[in-house]
């Protein structure tokens, strides 16, 4: 009897507690909510390293009179109501030939007050044919105007807080760059880029001899490894001390590995986000089983590897009848018209974008786009007769890129020759999927061994003030990071994590 009475009293007490908690939650005011969010943002914004954000730049001058032709006054950048600081931008040719008409557009920023004068980071976006000014404005540049922002704001996670940074619109045919594209493969692209850098260093000769780090995302998983390899294999061509590279959400392997094979597993991981019906899920599960996708990683991705990993099927793009990625994308759009392959968490309505992001969803175009405005072009010495778009309408490889994926060719060599190398992947990226990048790594041999010898731990990537934000592992000069909550553009979606990873590449903090 006492036991029954005790149970009843306990149930009443629990009900009162739950009701009290629910009442408290319902009574939270918007002011309280904003206060809690503000406190969280303060923790997020705090840079715990000595390289905190600040105003102004390190003292840097260039003796070549030509440098003044490219000077950009940081108080005169349209719509930016704060001083970005001095920078230099414009067009330079890809060779010193007197009749050279091919030119690449660049924008160079010196380091901020806490940044290093000894280092230079090069950044390129992918595509191929997508502008690196997107990276500048929405990822790692000193001012930010990202999706949904009404106005530009200072970017406290700008990589200028670590080093000077050079954004280049390349190859020819991208952005403001000039000339007719004629490259056949990545070696041609690398030769043209190094030719541009030779001209750049003649104008800005004080940058010669700096520690050089190459970085980029997406199709830059091809650009950056091949350029880095070209520099290492031609050591007398560039007066820079090349130290290492960063590639994030990179294209480094076959489509069947990076898109088709992991697609259904990805959908299961994020079932509540995709919200696809049971009939469709059963269909793609059956297809994944038939095509050898379902258990591919569980079977073949071992630590250490047991040998070279096979293709799932006979085609590098996916066998006929086994290309599930497009079907999933179409189904996802039926449920969510704003479904974004670059960051799957996006929902309707679509955020306004000052660059008119050419993503996987309908975009109300901003007219004109920020970098296509006449006043912006004048401010940064861009050609006024060029209609700027974020991704080029012309084929920068007129007959396609004849190079094999970098993970099968040059990537092992540049890991071996670099002091440090970094591969990063956002886990909410559906256009290039992290599971495929893991397969590429385990199929690659560098420094005498194939793949990682021990498994990649879970939840061990600790971001200052935030806790575990993904997974990381380092072996034999390669550091691999997977970032939770981030989509394709890691510096845009997880800027603090990206900042911390770049510190690792530069040697400013040890690998986790």
What does this entry show, briefly?
The chain is α/β, with parallel strands linked by helices.
Mean pLDDT: 91
As a whole number of angstroms, the C-alpha radius of gyration is 25 Å
Poorly predicted spans: 5-25
Shape: globular
Q: What is the annotated CATH architecture of the largest domain?
A: 3-Layer(aba) Sandwich
Class from helix and strand fractions: alpha/beta
Proportion of residues in helical segments:
25-40%
N→C terminal distance: 59 Å
Integer tally of domains: 2
Number of helices: 15
Order of adjacent strands in the largest pleated sheet: 1-2-3-7-4-8-9-10-16-15
- Kindly report the CATH topology of the largest domain: Rossmann fold
Largest sheet: 10 strands, mixed
* Assigned CATH superfamily of the largest domain: Alpha/Beta hydrolase fold, catalytic domain
| CATH C-level label of the largest domain | Alpha Beta
Number of DSSP E strands? 16
Strand content: 15-25%
Topology:
Elements: H1 2-26, H2 30-45, E1 71-72, E2 87-93, E3 103-109, E4 116-124, H3 133-140, E5 143-144, E6 153-154, E7 163-169, H4 186-203, E8 211-217, H5 220-233, E9 241-248, H6 255-269, H7 271-274, H8 278-291, H9 296-300, H10 325-335, H11 374-379, H12 411-417, E10 420-426, H13 434-442, E11 445-446, E12 449-450, E13 462-463, E14 467-468, E15 470-475, E16 478-483, H14 490-493, H15 495-506
Parallel strand pairs: 4-7, 4-8, 8-9, 9-10, 10-16
Antiparallel strand pairs: 1-2, 2-3, 3-7, 5-6, 11-12, 13-14, 15-16
């Amino acid at each position: 009897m006492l036991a029954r009475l005790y149970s009843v009293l306990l149930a009443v007490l629990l009900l009162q507690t739950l009701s009290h908690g629910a009442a408290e939650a319902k009574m939270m005011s918007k002011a309280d909510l904003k206060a809690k969010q503000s406190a969280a943002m303060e923790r997020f914004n705090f840079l715990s390293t000595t390289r905190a954000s600040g105003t102004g730049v390190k003292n840097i001058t260039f003796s070549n009179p030509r440098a003044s032709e490219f000077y950009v006054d940081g108080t005169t950048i349209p719509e930016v109501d704060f001083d970005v600081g001095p920078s230099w931008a414009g067009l330079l040719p890809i060779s010193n030939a007197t009749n050279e008409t091919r030119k690449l557009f660049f924008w160079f920023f010196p380091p901020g007050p806490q940044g290093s004068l000894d280092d230079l980071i090069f950044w390129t976006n992918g595509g191929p044919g997508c502008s690196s000014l997107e990276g500048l404005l929405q990822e790692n540049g000193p001012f930010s105007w990202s999706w949904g922002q009404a106005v530009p704001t200072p970017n406290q996670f700008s990589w200028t807080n670590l080093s000077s940074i050079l954004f280049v619109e390349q190859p020819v045919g991208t952005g403001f760059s000039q000339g007719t594209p004629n490259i056949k493969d990545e070696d041609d692209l690398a030769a043209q880029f190094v030719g541009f850098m030779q001209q750049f260093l003649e104008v800005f000769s004080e940058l010669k001899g700096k520690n050089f780090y190459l970085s980029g995302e997406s199709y830059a998983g091809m650009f950056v490894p091949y350029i880095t390899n070209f520099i290492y294999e031609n050591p007398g061509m560039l007066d820079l001390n090349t130290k290492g590279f960063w590639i994030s959400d990179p294209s480094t392997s076959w489509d069947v590995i990076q898109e088709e094979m992991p697609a259904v597993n990805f959908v299961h991981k994020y079932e509540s986000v995709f919200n696809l019906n049971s009939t469709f899920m059963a269909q793609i599960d059956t297809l994944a089983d038939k095509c050898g996708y379902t258990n591919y990683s569980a079977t073949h991705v071992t630590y250490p590897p047991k040998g070279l990993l096979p293709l799932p099927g006979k085609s590098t793009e996916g066998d006929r009848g086994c290309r599930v990625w497009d079907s999933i994308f179409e189904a996802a759009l039926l449920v969510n018209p704003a479904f974004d392959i670059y960051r799957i968490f996006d929902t309707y309505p679509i955020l306004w974008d000052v660059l008119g992001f050419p993503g996987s969803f309908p975009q109300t175009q901003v007219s004109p786009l920020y970098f296509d405005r006449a006043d912006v072009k004048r401010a940064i010495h861009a050609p006024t007769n060029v209609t700027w778009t974020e991704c080029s309408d012309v084929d920068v490889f007129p007959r396609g890129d004849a190079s094999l994926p970098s993970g099968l060719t040059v990537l092992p060599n540049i890991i071996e020759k670099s002091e440090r190398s970094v591969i990063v992947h956002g886990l909410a990226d559906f256009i290039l999927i992290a599971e495929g990048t893991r397969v590429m790594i385990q199929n690659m041999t560098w420094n005498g061994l194939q793949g990682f010898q021990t498994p990649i731990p879970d939840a061990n990537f600790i971001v200052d003030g935030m806790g575990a934000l993904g997974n990381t592992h380092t072996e034999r000069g390669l550091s691999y990071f997977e970032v939770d909550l981030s989509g394709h553009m890691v510096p845009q979606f997880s800027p603090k994590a990206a900042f911390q990873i770049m510190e690792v590449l530069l040697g400013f903090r040890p690998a986790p």
